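TL;DR need structure tokens for one chain.
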Amino acid sequence: MSDAVLLEVADGVATLTMNRPDRMNPLTGDVAVELDAHLADLADRDDVRCVVLRGAGGAFSAGGDVQHLQENLESDDSLDESARRIERGLGAAMARLVTCPYPTVAAVDGPAVGAGATLAIACDVVLASESAAIGFVFDQVGLSVDGGTSYLLPRVVGLNVAKELVFTGEVCDPERAADLGLFNHVYADAAFDDEVAALAAEIAAGPTVALRHSKRLLQDGLDKSLQEAIHDEALAQGVVFDTDDHAEGVRAFFEDRAPEFEGH
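>> reply
TL;DR here they are.
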């Protein structure tokens, strides 16, 4: 792989940094491909307990690359070929992120627009700096939504608000985005990196197996009946009951101390 997406793993936290700052980290070409590849590799590692996704150079992601869009207009590819290319690149990376078994944190320090906005809300928790902005601006280049926006956005803000954001292409400032639920927390620029690191460390110190099951159950819960959810939760608890972290949690409770989970 090239350096389009950088990976660093430390203390259970894998940090993926989209590294095309000269183009505001577009989700086309090598960025999408390498993001997908890194996420696939992380799924098999036993030293990862949380994933942080961020962008280099003062932007999270500008989504589509306008230069790429111009090249697409001038190419001889059929419409079907163009659609399949989007699905293979951007779509694959988005699907891999949503289904990542670890808790994921988007660190939005700058603009996240178009598919870049969708990439942010594809993470489990979205943290923003005061310099952040987010907007589903597909309309500005005459395009419909892609990358899973129609699936993810209504689940975050509700259907009517999702339609408004897409129809108007509104770029939300941090306060507006937090009010809508697009951002979990907004931090001062100077404190942003420390706050992201603190939350990631807190998640990474948790009971990893239990959190993996909780993430899956929460994501699937919107598409289940209550009885189906209760049944699936019981099955998951049957697995988690057998983990070392559960035993440690019970011991810590009776010993009146903080548990020291090891992720298994």
